[in-house]
Write a structure and sequence with these properties.
It contains six helices and nine strands, in the order βαββααβααββαβββ. It has 200 residues and is α+β, with helices and mostly antiparallel strands. The protein is elongated and about 45 Å long. It binds zinc ion.
């Protein structure tokens, strides 16, 4: 069973994540690998991040102590300003129209009540490495940003200050889709950008 938790100090930034995300299996993620979906349609560009808590604050249990809650809130505040996470070319004239910042918490205690999720592991032979984490909690930062752009075709590169904002971060696996087609990138801190020339 999954539940979404939100931290009271940043209530204003918090919104519900969709039902589809609630069924996402947080414990299947790989620490050190954040996922980013970028979609361009018309003049709109959307960013959707799913990043293990380990990559952001260094832990994934539900923050309960003051110091842990402070770490989580500091991270949420950084996400509130997308300039900390990525940057778009100024000439594209993109304006943020919506953002949603939250945490999807997979509660470890539920595993002791029922063993449903062990059936899931059997179906995925390639996820052996996660078995050792069965008794741990997992969570993800789930963050959406939507922009409208005056000159969306001017987006030839997206840079990711994300890697310096969050020193625990690993790589970002980027799935990019536009009306031209789709492509993917693996981005790391030593080359923190993607080149989109000819892809929009
Ligand atoms: Zn995890």
């Amino acid at each position: 069973m999954k539940k979404n938790i939100y931290y009271s100090l940043l209530i204003s930034a918090m919104v519900s994540v969709s039902a589809a995300e609630e069924t996402r299996q947080v414990d299947k993620h790989e620490h050190g690998v954040g996922e980013l979906n970028i979609a361009i349609e018309g003049n709109a560009i959307d960013f959707e991040f799913f990043i293990p808590g380990a990559d952001i604050v260094g832990f994934e249990y539900e923050a309960k102590t003051e110091s842990d809650i402070a770490l989580v809130n500091a991270a949420l505040e950084k996400f509130e300003n997308f300039d900390n996470i990525f940057s778009l070319p100024e000439s594209s004239n993109c304006n943020l129209v919506n953002s949603e910042i939250g945490i999807n918490q997979d509660d470890d205690h539920d595993e002791h009540d029922d063993h449903d999720e062990h059936d899931d592991h059997d179906e995925h032979d390639d996820h052996d490495e996660h078995d050792e984490h069965d008794e741990e909690a997992h969570n993800e930062f789930v963050v959406h940003y939507s922009f409208n752009c005056g000159n969306i075709k001017e987006i030839d590169r997206i840079s990711f200050p994300y890697f310096t904002t969050f020193p625990n971060s690993g790589e970002l696996e980027v799935q990019f889709v536009s009306e031209i087609g789709s492509t993917s990138f693996e981005v790391e801190g030593d080359e923190p950008f993607i080149d989109l020339k000819g892809k929009i």
